[in-house]
Amino acid sequence: MSFVNGNEIFTAARKGHYAVGAFNTNNLEWTRAILKAAQEKKTPVLIQVSMGAAKYMGDYKLVKTLVEEEARVMGITVPVIMHLDHGNYEAAKECIEAGYNSVMFDGHDLPFEENLVKTKEIVALAHAKNISVEAEVGSIGGEEDGIIGAGELADVEEAKQIAALGVDYLACGIGNIHGKYPANWKGLNFDRLKELADVIDTPLVLHGGSGIPQEQVVKAIKMGVSKVNINTECQLSFAAATRKYVEAGKDLEGKGYDPRKLLAPGTDAITDTVKEIIDWLGTPSVD
Ligand code: 13P
């Protein structure tokens, strides 16, 4: 088992025009399902936790321990990056203290100058401990754990300034949104992605990766996106498989109500989804 920061993995991805998946964990089953998929595909994986999911599970330390101990018990050998997703200033500092491999400081809702100053501070604290940092410019649309973004496009000048602080990966709004995409969604803005990728070498991050048509994801990766964030897609597969189990009356057969049985189809469905997404991203195997 190897826990690593994201520097080499995402730099190589940007150079190689492929991406590495960043999957949100929500509990023990999610953690196992993601680790299992990465191990079966023999690819590096980033497991991330939002502030809300960490609160739901306990705290940041608990989540890190859960991921590390599951990886140990499961005999995971592929590189794993433990990452904080959309952290505010306090959460980023707490996860740096707790020894995460990587943290996102999301200062997009702050006045730009304050985002700059705070991102710089987080970079200094994190890099002193060999921890990678993701920053954000231009809000990602939709709602995630109470963080609501309007989905505007990242300003290229602002993105350049944030990248120049030495952040290791950069989330930029390019029309992407968290959660399900509405039927009238206009698609990713490739013109803005090109403008950003032309002047920024930092690996770029595509948030709201669930539900974007495959060809758009692949095109974005070819243009400079190296980290693709996925949460909703796994939630939907888990819910659909669990619904199927219950609707088939399986929970009423024998001890089908036992959570170890009841949650198994959903957990397997997450593994299948993660494996399918890894294929889309073109992540090469570490062997
Ligand atoms: P989705 O839930 O839309 O996949 O977004 C995940 C994400 O971007 C986490 O930061």
UniProtKB/TrEMBL annotation:
Active-site residues, record numbering mapped to chain: 85 (proton donor)
Superkingdom, taxonomy of origin: Bacteria
Details of cofactor binding: Binds 2 Zn(2+) ions per subunit. One is catalytic and the other provides a structural contribution.
GO MF terms held by the record: fructose-bisphosphate aldolase activity; zinc ion binding
A biological-process GO annotation: glycolytic process
Enzyme Commission code: 4.1.2.13
Biological or metabolic pathway of the protein: Carbohydrate degradation
Keywords for the protein's UniProt record, in alphabetical order: Lyase, Metal-binding, Zinc
UniProt xrefs under PROSITE patterns: ALDOLASE_CLASS_II_1 (PS00602), ALDOLASE_CLASS_II_2 (PS00806)
Cofactor(s) for this UniProt protein: Zn(2+)
Stored InterPro entries: Aldolase_TIM, Class_II_FBP_aldolase, FBA_II, Fruc_bis_ald_class-2
Residue numbers binding dihydroxyacetone phosphate: 179, 208-210, 229-232
Coiled-coil stretches noted in the UniProt entry, renumbered to this chain: none
Record: residues binding Zn(2+) 2: 106, 136
Pfam hit, one: F_bP_aldolase
Gene3D superfamilies, alphabetized: Aldolase class I (3.20.20.70)
Positions bound to Zn(2+) 1: 86, 178, 207
PANTHER family per record: D-TAGATOSE-1,6-BISPHOSPHATE ALDOLASE, D-TAGATOSE-1,6-BISPHOSPHATE ALDOLASE SUBUNIT GATY-RELATED
Record NCBIfam families: cbbA (TIGR00167), fruc_bis_ald (TIGR01859)
Stated name of the protein: Class II fructose-1,6-bisphosphate aldolase
